[in-house]
Amino acid sequence: MVQVTAAPDCGNAPRKQVLRDFAVAMAEHDTDSLLSAVADDVEWEIVGRRTVRGKADFAAAVAAGVDRRAETLRMDSILTHGREGAVSSRLGLPGGGGLRCCDVYTFSGHGKTATIKRITSYWIEE
């Protein structure tokens, strides 16, 4: 289980909790939670590395990262507005080192049940 650190939330922005849960699921490679949060036609661009389209490719991309399971996840900032959101975080990896991450999200709509339609990830190895 990943050790998670995040600033407390005021509770007035429900999508912040959605993005927090998604970031934790990503760090823990919880494929079931991740797949339930994304649209069927999700697009995930990891800038400079790859782009995946659709749930099947998304699940395969998550599974491919299993060998790099995070030990810690520190969420520095979670921002949301309308159909968009972003998470700035740091992943600590086994044996030292880690990733600095900024993930930008677009939801499929404004409703409470809207799923994640697009993710653009900017990751820098530390």
UniProtKB/TrEMBL annotation:
Position of the signal peptide: none
The organism's place on the tree of life at top rank: Bacteria
Pfam families recorded: SnoaL_2
Domain SnoaL-like span(s) in chain numbering: 20-112
The species this protein was found in: Nocardiopsis endophytica
Protein name: Nuclear transport factor 2 family protein
